[in-house]
Specification:
With 147 residues, this protein is mostly helical. It has one domain (13-144). Helix content is 47%, strand content 5%. It has helices spanning 13-36, 55-60, 65-70, 76-94, 108-114, 118-124, and strands at residues 98-99, 102-103, 129-130, 138-139. The strands form two sheets. It has a two-stranded antiparallel ribbon. Strands 3-4 form a two-stranded antiparallel ribbon. A hairpin with a 7-residue loop joins strand 3 (129-130) and strand 4 (138-139). It is elongated and about 60 Å long. 19% of the residues are buried.
């Protein structure tokens, strides 16, 4: 067994800088949301979508927010990642690209990329429980997360 017996009087510079970076990244999501999303979370984009490629790219815009939250980012990251997932799923359902919360006619690689943020939610908190109605249907109790 290794035992640490030297007191840490002050954190190393790298740790202070890393904490500052996490704080900056936590706040940067608001700039992204103001510039690229509507109030309801949908992307400021087109009204119709003619192709089949693009849903995974839309989800990738925020798929790492739960990971940043897990590394010590602000609480809003987890709630906003859920809001964006739901909004983009609704938006692409209207385009006809999503049916019952699954992307139609695409390979499993892209299907997996589509769910990369939602797979993080379960290991981040026990406050999110799966319901029986489908992939994106979660019972959310986000007000009590992380603390």
């Amino acid at each position: 067994m290794i035992e640490a017996d030297i007191p840490l009087l002050s954190p190393p510079t790298w740790a202070i800088l890393e904490r500052a970076l996490i704080d900056i990244m936590s706040q940067s999501v608001f700039s992204f949301l103001r510039k690229y999303t509507r109030e309801d979370g949908t992307l400021i984009w087109r009204d119709e979508f003619p192709g089949i490629d693009g849903l995974d790219d839309a989800y990738e815009s925020f798929h790492n927010w739960p990971l940043l939250y897990a590394l010590g980012g602000d609480d809003h990251l987890l709630n906003l990642s859920m809001k964006e997932f739901d909004a983009i799923t609704r938006q692409f359902t209207k385009y006809g690209q999503v049916y019952k919360e699954y992307e139609q006619g695409y390979d499993w690689f892209h299907q997996g990329k589509d769910t990369s943020s939602s797979t993080s939610w379960g290991w981040l908190t026990r406050q999110i429980r799966r319901t029986s109605s489908g992939r994106g249907a979660y019972e959310r109790k986000c007000s009590v997360l992380k603390k």
